Amino acid sequence: MKETFLRGLSGLVYIALLLLSFLNEHTLILIFFIFGLICISEFKKLVQLKHWSPYLIFTIIYFVFGYWKIFVNSTYGLDVATQILQVITIFVLLFLIKDLFSEKTIPLFDFKKYILTTFYLSSAFVFLPLITKYDGFFDVSILLGSFILIWVNDSAAYFVGKNFGKQKLFPSVSPKKTVEGFLGGIFFACVASFFISLYTYDVSFNSWLILSIIVSTTGTIGDLIESKFKRQANVKDSGTIMPGHGGLLDRLDSIIFAAPFIYLFLRILRHVS
Q1: Which residues make beta-bridge pairs with 246?
Q2: How do residues 178-222 score in pLDDT, each as one tens digit?
Q3: pLDDT digit string (tens) for 79-89?
Q4: What are the boundaries of each domain within the chain?
Q5: Burial 38-64 (b: 16+ CB within 10 A, else e)
Q6: Rounded to an integer, what distance in angstroms lies between the CA atom of residue 270 and that of residue 257?
Q7: Are the beta carbons of 114 and 53 closer than 8 angstroms?
Q8: Prediction pTM value
C-alpha cells in the first residue's frame, strides 16, 4: 500500500513539474535545468564517471543557448552555433545507435564518457527549450505534443506487446519489448498525432504524423540505449529519486534521445514551408 502511494505521488509530482515548466520560458528553462542536473548525476553513476566537470559543461552550454540574447546582446550567431551543436550531437547519437546494434557492450573509455555526458545528455537538454522557440517565439505546443506522443507510444507498445507480442525486438537489451509492441506504439502515436494537430494551428496533421514516427522510433531507440547502459552497470533503474518509477533518466530517456531529431525536423519544416 505504501509503495503504491509513493509511486503515485512521485508520478504526480513529476507530471506537475512538467506542466509547471510549460507556464513560461523562464520556468521551463529552470525546471529542465534541474532535470538535466539530476539526469547527469544518474548517468555518471551508470558509466562510473566521478569527476564534477560534466555539471559545469552542462551549466555553461545550457544557459548560453537558453539565454543567448542576454549573453551576446543579440541573436547573431545563435543559428550557426545551434547548427554546429546539432551536427555534433546527432553524430554522437548515430554512434550510440551503432554501438547498440553492433557491440555486445558499449565501449566506455574515459574520453567517451565525457563525450556522452556532453552530447548525449547535456546538448539534448539544450534542444528541449530550443524546440519551444524553433520559429522565433515561445510556444510549448510542439514540446508538449512530443511528450504526449511518447506517453502514447510507450503505453500502446506495452499494451500491444503484452497481449499480442510474439517476436522479441531486442531480447539481449530489453527482453519484454516486442516487434508487435513497437509497431503498435507507432500506430497509436500516429492516431494521437491527428488529435494533437486539431489544437496546434501552426503545424499541420501531415507534419505531426511525421513527428509521431520520428518521436516513436527515436524514443524507442533512446530507451533501448539507456537499458543497455543499465545492463552494463548491472542495475535495474538509473536512480531512486522517483519511488516506484526508478530514476528521472528512466522517465526522460526517450525525449532526451528524440529531442535533437525533433528540432532537426522543425528546422527543415521551417525552411521548406
Answers
A1: 242
A2: 999 999 999 999 999 999 999 887 889 999 999 999 999 999 999
A3: 888 999 999 99
A4: 2-272
A5: bbbbbbbbbbebeeeebbeebeebbee
A6: 21
A7: yes
A8: 0.93
